[in-house]
# Entry
Amino acid sequence: MTYCVGLLLNAGMVLLSDTRTNAGLDNIATYRKMFHFEEPGERVISLTTAGSLSVTQTTIARLREAIDDPDATEATSIMKAPTMLKVALIIGDMLSTVRQEIDEKLSTMKQSASASMIVAAQRRGGPMRLFLIYPEGNFIEATEDTPFLQIGEHKYGKPILDRVVNPNTSLADAEKAVLLSMDSTLRSNLSVGMPLDLCVIEKDACRVSRKRRIEAGDDSFRLMSEAWSKALRDAFTQITL
# Structure
């Protein structure tokens, strides 16, 4: 399993993903689940993935292949699509097609495969947009009322986002919020694990403004986690019935 989260704020977008993939307790591996497509200053598209690795890797590979195709058009390439809504449609169609193909191959074993994605995107002159794409290819979009989207093991990290994130949240506070959301998930679910990938896309930059790989044992992440745990314990002891 995995956990990925994306925030859509007035100041920009923030994405965070873990890298753990497991097919049983004795088969745990690390795979990147965050991918970037960009023409700096013109267009940026960042994706995080959750679910079957065969589905997500094939989908990403085909999206790249479509970009590199010399006959690519606005209907086939996410780097040529005229709007970010069209980008979401292209990705959704590709994800759905790949999932169905793999499902057919697995049907004789009475198994199935599924995957979902978060897509953060902006083109020059257009608004920032954040989509959650479902396995069937349909999607929803982040709004001012719900400025964050999650995929994977989302339930453990949702409470802090509900309480502290709104469109006016600064990018610095947003980074802290998604990292604490991930910390809560890491503590409660063994199928989510380090290292973590974080990216920040500043509004109208049309490029990835900052990327960070957080390894196991990272001092700043450990100190933040310890401070959060202490703050929660102190708050708990101060509450009276």
Summary: The chain has a mean pLDDT of 95. Residues 46 and 130 are 10 Å apart (CA to CA).
